[in-house]
Design brief:
The chain is of the alpha/beta class and 385 residues long. It has helices at 12-21, 29-37, 46-52, 66-76, 85-93, 108-117, 133-139, 150-159, 202-214, 228-241, 245-261, 268-276, 295-302, 315-318, 331-343, 345-362, 365-380; strands spanning 3-8, 57-62, 97-100, 122-126, 144-147, 164-166, 186-194, 218-224, 278-283, 306-310, 326-328.
Length: 385
């Protein structure tokens, strides 16, 4: 049996919402952490829960949940120590295995500090995002890397030369999800981000605008950076400077329309409750990826929606296209398919139910952590992968 510590991170916007509505300073550390995990945000603590069922002793900390981390420091740590709180927690919980959920955290300073001051056997890191120079450096510091698509796996093997596990995203099958399609009151839902700085969501702008214009019964919730207007103005001025404004003017108008008319970002249970009421969920991947595999594929099918997603490599390894999920190659094709399925709800119901069953049976944490366990065992015992 291994003592396993997962160091996770949560999205700052979600964290702000949690602190506003759920944080109670009278709660102790364990109560606050339990409350945070009960929100079912993204991966949450599902990996550690599933590993606990196969003979791992698991602990999870949320490194950027500062109010909760400070509560731990008050109850278990040394407030007067200059030592990093994460190092204090590692010393306190004495894990054999560490799994870092955010590659940005795995810098040389932290990893060397862990290896120098603790008895940790192996350190693993998850990354399912574009490989920046900093992330590449960080991934070279750890003993093994877990990623979510074949494309990222190939990039990591080529640029990091590390032990890499392809462990795709999945869905917590214990979440109460299924409702009948005739009780679903929202025709079209899109939930996602548009961040100008990264330039990874630009294709979404025209698509989302068309969804607004073609479907009145929609739920479109977009997460924008808190610096959106600064980034918008910078991009707009840059477009003028390089004489591209005549090409991009329509893009900026659509972007402003989406900003003012979309709903606030939603996460965790709030998002799952919307998906529970949704007939068709539209999914798109970030602009630079060739491979399917984002979380929304599994959240949407897991909640019983008909998911219509952009066509990407490996999607057919996850779902039967046309039977468990639908795809689109262009915005016009997407609009036509949405209209078709909204008029033919028996077909909509059949495909969404097939997708739901596929996710329930094949894309769950119980099966995913068996892959992770084998990967950990091979590296701990230095077997060839």
């Amino acid at each position: 049996m291994y003592n396993f510590l997962r160091i996770s991170s949560v999205y700052p916007t979600f964290l702000n919402q949690f602190n506003k509505f759920y944080y109670d300073s009278n709660d102790n550390y364990e109560a606050l952490l339990k409350k945070l995990f009960s929100q079912n945000y993204s991966i949450s603590n599902n990996i550690t829960k599933a590993l606990s069922e196969i003979n791992y002793q698991c602990i999870e900390i949320v490194e950027n949940a500062n109010l909760i981390q400070n509560k731990w420091l008050q109850e278990y740590g040394d407030k007067n120590s200059s030592e990093n709180i994460i190092i204090q927690q590692i010393k306190y919980y004495k894990p054999d295995i560490i799994y870092i959920g955010n590659a940005s955290l795995a810098d040389k300073f932290l990893i060397e500090n862990i290896k120098k001051n603790t008895k940790v056997k192996k350190i693993f890191c998850f990354n399912c995002a574009p490989l920046t120079n900093n992330i590449i450096k960080n991934l070279k510091n750890v003993d093994g890397v877990i990623t979510c698509t074949q494309g990222y796996k190939e990039q990591i093997l080529n640029r990091v030369n590390n032990n890499v596990l392809l462990m795709r995203h999945c869905f917590n099958s214990k979440v109460k999800t299924k409702t009948e399609n005739n009780s679903r009151e929202i025709d079209i839902t899109f939930i996602g981000s548009i961040f100008l700085k990264q330039g990874l969501h630009m294709k979404r702008v025209s698509l989302i605008y068309k969804l607004f214009k073609n479907f009145k019964n929609n739920y479109i919730a977009i997460n924008f950076s808190k610096y959106f207007f600064v980034q918008f103005l910078f991009s707009f001025i840059r477009s003028i400077f390089f004489f591209k404004i005549h090409k991009n003017f329509s893009f900026y108008l659509k972007l402003l329309f989406i900003y003012f008319f979309s709903k606030k970002p939603i996460f965790g249970n709030e998002m799952l409750n919307i998906l529970k009421k949704t007939k068709i969920l539209i999914n798109t991947h970030i602009d630079d990826t060739e491979y399917a595999g984002n979380m929304r594929l599994f959240e949407g099918t897991g909640m019983g929606c008909l998911v219509i997603t952009d066509q990407k490599k490996d999607l057919d390894k996850l779902f039967k296209i046309g039977n468990e999920i639908e795809t689109f190659k262009s915005e016009d094709e997407l609009i036509k398919k949405c209209n078709y399925f909204l008029k033919n709800e028996d077909e909509l119901s059949k495909i969404s139910n097939n997708g739901y069953l596929r996710t329930l049976n094949d894309h769950n944490y119980k099966d995913r952590v068996l892959l992770l366990d084998k990967f950990i065992q091979n590296i701990v015992y230095e077997k060839n992968i």
